[in-house]
Design brief:
Strand content: 35-45%
CATH topology of the largest domain: Rossmann fold
Strand order of the largest sheet: 6-7-8-3-9-10
CATH superfamily of the largest domain: P-loop containing nucleotide triphosphate hydrolases
Shape: elongated
Number of strands: 20
Number of domains: 2
Helix content: 10-25%
Radius of gyration: 25 Å
CATH class of the largest domain: Alpha Beta
Order of helices and strands: EEEHEEEHHHEHEHEEHHEEEEEEEEEE
Structural class: alpha+beta
Distance between the termini: 40 Å
């Protein structure tokens, strides 16, 4: 698949602050790639560099096989949707969608046909005469998305487009964005700090930290097989346990003498951290082959899933188990056993 957008070792500083540090990632034709990371990681700076609002100190930005660094923002073939939508408040929906086409001096017939097509795509047919303030937040976001698509850009840039919406509407609009993106087939760069958004909407996720790429992969790969401790801790919930490495592939919980195997590579001796997803921890009876035991501290019923917090003894560490496939029937204060599925665990020396 051909690439539509590529960052090639892009570096950008603001004074003494390094915002992007040899940042490289590609977006293929028809692909949606999320830039995910905490505030200050450089994700919005990367989008602004691509859009032409910031010039990098070094590196290159390619659209197709051509560099766009020497091109102004309006000649880069990119559509941009901001956090606050930036709709023209005095123009109705149709006029907002026509704006870019008018700038390009498209004929009235072309404008009319394109706007009709876009209104159908974003499911807003019949609302073309409404002003922005007469629309819901979700509808405004879809108008902003349609306006960005009106001039048929090569690449779509979305800068935290759901952050201004309440939780329920966010999920609905997120799914709409994915449907519209697939329908248009446009390469899309989606900036977000929300893990659930990134995992739900993306073909691939680029996890960023301090201006650098920590991991790029499918949502499943990033969540299930994190490449670094930062990715494991930032993307989803993780049990972060203090362990002692007894030998290659064998660890014991801190304060315990019973070891158990860990297939992942890592330190071969000494103190370490074992990172496990809650779904890789199972609560069992004391008579079962438990790797550890402890006392139930809390039970969290979440509808489809139930989570159980267990205070392990004698290590005095709390571990969470989340089991979506069966009912977890245990009471607070009950003594239980715990089993770890360490196949996807990450063993690290980092604190």
């Amino acid at each position: 698949m051909n690439r539509s957008l590529a960052f090639l070792s892009v570096t950008k500083s603001f004074g003494k602050t390094l915002a992007l540090d040899h940042f490289s990632v590609e977006v293929a034709e028809g692909e949606l790639v999320s830039l995910l990371g905490p505030s200050g990681c450089g994700k919005s700076t990367a989008l602004r560099v691509a859009a032409g609002f910031e010039n990098p100190d070094s590196g290159d930005v390619m659209v197709g096989e051509s560099s766009v660094l020497g091109s102004p923002a309006n000649e880069r073939g990119m559509g941009l949707v901001f956090q606050n939508y930036s709709l023209f408040p005095h123009l109705n929906v149709r006029e907002n969608l026509e704006f870019g086409l008018r700038v390009r001096r498209s004929s009235a017939a072309v404008r009319r046909a394109r706007v009709t097509e876009l209104l159908e795509l974003v499911r807003l047919s019949g609302l073309d005469d409404r002003l922005p303030h007469q629309l819901s937040g979700g509808q405004q976001q879809r108008v902003a998305l349609a306006r960005a698509l009106a001039v048929e850009p090569r690449v779509l840039l979305l800068d935290e487009p759901l952050s201004a919406l309440d939780a329920t509407v966010r999920v609905e609009v997120r799914d709409e964005i994915r449907r519209i993106q697939r329908g248009s087939g446009i390469a899309t760069l989606f900036v977000t700090h929300d893990q659930d958004e990134a995992l739900a909407i993306s073909d691939r996720v680029c996890v960023m930290r301090s201006g650098r790429v920590e991991q790029v992969g499918t949502p499943r790969a990033v969540y299930r097989y994190p490449a670094t401790p930062f990715v494991a801790r930032f993307v989803g919930r993780v049990n972060d346990l203090a362990v002692v490495v007894r030998g290659v592939g064998i660890v014991a919980l801190r304060g315990s003498t019973s070891g158990f195997p860990v297939p992942q590579s890592g330190p071969s001796s000494g103190d370490a951290r074992l990172l496990l997803r809650p779904e890789d921890v199972r609560v069992v009876g004391l008579s079962d082959d438990a790797l550890a035991r402890g006392r139930v501290e809390a039970v969290h019923f979440g509808g489809a899933t139930t989570s159980v917090d267990v205070l392990l003894t004698p290590s005095n560490q709390t571990v969470r188990s989340t089991d979506a496939t069966r009912n977890v029937r245990c009471e607070v204060g009950e003594e239980v056993g715990v089993v770890f599925d360490t196949e996807r665990a990450l063993l690290t020396r980092e604190p």
